[in-house]
Amino acid sequence: MLQEYQTVTHQFEPVFDEDSKVLILGTFPSVKSREQNFYYGHPQNRFWKVLANLTGCEVPGTVEEKKGFLLREHIAVWDVIAKCDIIGSSDSSIRNVVPADLSRVLDHAPIRQIYANGAKAYELYQKYAYPITGREIVKLPSTSPANAAWQMERLLEAWAAVKENLG
User: Fold this and answer.
1) In DSSP terms, which residues pair with 115 in a beta bridge?
2) What is d(CA 54, CA 152) in angstroms, rounded to the nearest whole number?
3) Closest among 112, 124, 103, 108 to 23, alpha carbons compared
4) Which residue has the higher pLDDT, 88 or 115?
5) Which of 40, 59, 94, 126 could form a disulfide with 52 if both were Cys (CB 3.0 to 4.6 A apart)?
6) Reported pTM
7) Terminal Cα-to-Cα distance of the chain (whole angstroms)
8) What pLDDT, in 10s, does the model give residues 6-47?
9) CA 136, CA 126: separation in Å to the nearest integer?
10) Catalytic residue at 53?
11) Tell me, what's the pLDDT at 1?
């Protein structure tokens, strides 16, 4: 069955507060994340495992646990895209992008570094957000299950930079 493009609007808020030190940007929520109404909801996505490992914390399970974890660890999370046309969860299918207003986070939190969770988030940030923010972004390997080439050990090594900016 051929999937068709859907126009989808981001339905949940960024997670941050006045103590957030890093901002991690994805592209756009997957179908699973949209169903759960929160970031990185696919059970095979390694985002929560990677961050828990880096911070020495338990892997949060519920949406409330995840929000609490991010705020305690001074991590802001959002996506580059506010609205787009997409087929399922396929980043490569994204078109007709309406970028998110990142000033909502950047103007209210002392963000030391912005990170892209994957090459597509990096590419979209460079195209749509960098001209507005003027702030550099660091490209990290995606925690998505689609990025099977990156085993957990390699992901942890690459993502260690995040921890350095939290201290």
Assistant:
1) 24, 138
2) 12
3) 112
4) 115
5) 59
6) 0.95
7) 49
8) 999 999 999 999 999 999 999 999 999 999 999 999 999 999
9) 9
10) no
11) 57
